[in-house]
């Protein structure tokens, strides 16, 4: 009983801190620019860590270790390599350009940027982009709520729905009050908690599994488990082809279209500090993903050593290791509570950013920009907060099944954003001949292909059974280029602005 009380104490203290931060930052939100972009005041460290914490989500602490636990290094490893490369390239070539361009245009949201970049006076691009954000962010947010529900259900035997709703209320509270600055500040704290959780789990798990040699021996005994060219499945090694490697690495393409990451680039106080942010972000991503994969391997070793049961749901591996840690006394129980808080941190750091981005899509881009309903700043903030609550309710409904996979939900939403916004963003920043017709066609083509490939073509199997982001991304690029070249060139003032930004 004392052990459980220590875990609860650590989690409650963490959640209370998040709410306090949200309420304190609510006083700094005097406009929608403050609420959605923090007045472009983020420092380099906060920018780096909030971008990566909002990116990794519960996928880092639940999805990735779960995949490694089940099938070994190959699938998780190539996915991590793709994400690491994508992270670095995104910070290297996109961050500074979009910071500069968005400030030149006065854009505060991603749909707003697309509309102003392409001179879309009717705001059709704005509306379509906002709708895409809502379509893919609601299930993404649902995956986060699901992770919270699984945490408390596994740990305390709580009812899944009750646990999920309670977690959602906490996230909505600090997010609706504090806006972007609160989300970014809490993301920094959450990245620290996530890091502590990862390292405590890997060290404790290795000891419990009998040491590094025992972990290595158990993993090596499984055919294909430690190979990057094979994967472990049903007691045998299964070839992991070059096509499968490319498919896994395609996760890295998603970075170019992630609204919650791109917004961090737009919000930094000084573009010259993005170099520091890039280094910090890349190092953290590489280390954290490597440790997450090792946790999956160590977890299997613990199951073989008998210190951990064979898991029916591999995504609960960190929860089970933390629960085992908590049985070793008061202090270990408090540490276990920090680990549980780390899982909540991973979930919240993404869910808050998703909620804000989706809210901006409705209240700013659709209500004000597309329909032309001009609102006072106070009214706009109220609508934004109501939108956060409404989206959360829908996400809770979608996540009502406790058997839903965090990894699968996140992978689909990631593909959706990567294919719809990634090609358009790259064309907008680096190709002056790109026009609004091409951007619109590319967006729709990318989003449609994600659905078509996932639920149609991929079911044919064989070479078609690849991650839907890969074909959808390149299809959207091709459509964007063809339509842009087949229609009128962009107006001179748009080209002049492009060249002005490029020349800086």
Task: Provide structural commentary.
This protein has 504 residues and is mostly helical. The chain has 18 helices and two strands. The mean pLDDT is 81.
Uncertain runs: none
The helix/strand order is HHHHHHHHEEHHHHHHHHHH
Beta-strand content bin = under 5%
Distance between the termini: 62 Å
The beta-strand count equals 2
Structural class: mainly alpha
Radius of gyration: 22 Å
Number of helices: 18
**Residues in helices, as a percent range:** over 70%
What is the mean pLDDT? 81
* Global morphology: globular
Question: What strand line-up does the widest sheet have?
Answer: 1-2
Biggest beta-sheet profile = 2 strands, antiparallel
For this entry, give a set of tags:
504 residues; mainly alpha; two-stranded antiparallel sheet; 77% helix; 2% strand
Summarize the structure.
With 504 residues, the chain is an all-alpha fold. It has helices at residues 2-26, 32-37, 44-71, 73-105, 110-117, 124-156, 160-208, 212-220, 242-249, 259-267, 274-305, 317-325, 330-370, 377-398, 406-430, 436-455, 469-486, 492-503; strands at residues 230-233, 236-239. 77% of the residues lie in helices and 2% in strands.
How do the helices and strands line up, and which of them pair or pack?
Blueprint: H1 2-26, H2 32-37, H3 44-71, H4 73-105, H5 110-117, H6 124-156, H7 160-208, H8 212-220, E1 230-233, E2 236-239, H9 242-249, H10 259-267, H11 274-305, H12 317-325, H13 330-370, H14 377-398, H15 406-430, H16 436-455, H17 469-486, H18 492-503
Antiparallel strand pairs: 1-2
Helix pairs in contact: 1-7, 1-13, 3-4, 3-7, 3-10, 3-11, 3-13, 3-15, 4-9, 4-10, 4-11, 4-18, 5-6, 6-7, 6-13, 6-14, 6-15, 6-16, 7-11, 7-13, 7-14, 8-11, 12-13, 13-14, 15-16, 15-17, 16-17
